[in-house]
């Protein structure tokens, strides 16, 4: 399960400190970074969480950081926070995949609600990726040459015996595959 961390990237130290204080008081774990490059260097994409990101920063802007996240395939919901918001900037951020766009001065209730939605979205996305990976593993096991060979060797006199095995393999955890094959296969090779 991914972290419930909130990552803050803002070049303004008082803003970082204020957000860190407010979010910790609300029960979140918080990591703050003074620049986009420091975030890229210090973030572990397996952690999850969500990212509060200032748009206007030296070295690399928030939009450039978001583009880097997309290029690297790092899926973390980005909530832009800015004191320099324009409609065209908000549209650009949302088109690039931003989760939300909030103008400074920040209202605590609006920010906390956006963070909760982002974390909930991230949890669902994590569960979907996990389910997709599980299905890919099961499909790979079903199409692995050793399993396909075993499944195609049913005696000609009982062609229906293969159907329960295929159904069991498609929906059973991988630990059930070998026992299922062993029960339904008369060849000694299958009894491993």
Q: Could you explain the architecture of this structure?
A:
Helix 7 (162-171) runs antiparallel to helix 8 (177-184). Strand 1 (3-9), helix 1 and strand 2 form a beta-alpha-beta unit. The longest helix has 36 residues, at 108-143. Residues 150-192 have low confidence and may be disordered. The chain has helices at 13-25, 36-42, 62-72, 87-95, 108-143, 145-151, 162-171, 177-184, and strands at residues 3-9, 29-33, 48-54, 78-82, 100-103. It has two domains: 3-132, 3-Layer(aba) Sandwich (Rossmann fold), CATH 3.40.50; 144-190, no CATH class. The protein has a five-stranded parallel beta sheet, with helices on both faces. 53% of the residues lie in helices and 15% in strands. The protein is of the alpha/beta class. The chain is elongated and about 60 Å long.
Write the SSE topology.
Layout: E1 3-9, H1 13-25, E2 29-33, H2 36-42, E3 48-54, H3 62-72, E4 78-82, H4 87-95, E5 100-103, H5 108-143, H6 145-151, H7 162-171, H8 177-184
Helix pairs in contact: 7-8
């Amino acid at each position: 399960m991914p972290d419930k961390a909130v990552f803050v990237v803002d070049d303004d130290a008082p803003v970082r400190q204020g957000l860190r204080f407010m979010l910790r008081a609300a029960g979140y774990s918080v990591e703050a970074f003074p620049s986009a490059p420091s975030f890229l260097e210090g973030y572990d994409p397996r952690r999850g969480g969500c990212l509060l990101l200032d748009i206007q920063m030296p070295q690399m802007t928030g939009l450039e950081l978001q583009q880097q996240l997309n290029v690297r395939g790092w899926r973390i919901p980005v909530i832009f926070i800015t004191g320099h918001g324009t409609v065209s900037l908000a549209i650009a951020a949302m088109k690039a995949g931003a989760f939300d766009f909030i103008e400074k001065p920040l209202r605590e209730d609006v920010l906390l609600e956006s963070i909760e939605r982002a974390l909930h979205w991230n949890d669902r996305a994590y569960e979907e990726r996990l389910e997709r990976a599980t299905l890919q593993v099961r499909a790979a096991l079903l199409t692995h040459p050793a399993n396909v060979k075993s499944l195609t060797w049913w005696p000609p006199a009982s062609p229906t015996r293969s159907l329960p095995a295929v159904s069991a393999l498609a929906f059973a955890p991988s630990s059930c595959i070998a026992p299922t094959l062993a029960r339904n296969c008369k060849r000694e090779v299958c009894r491993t």
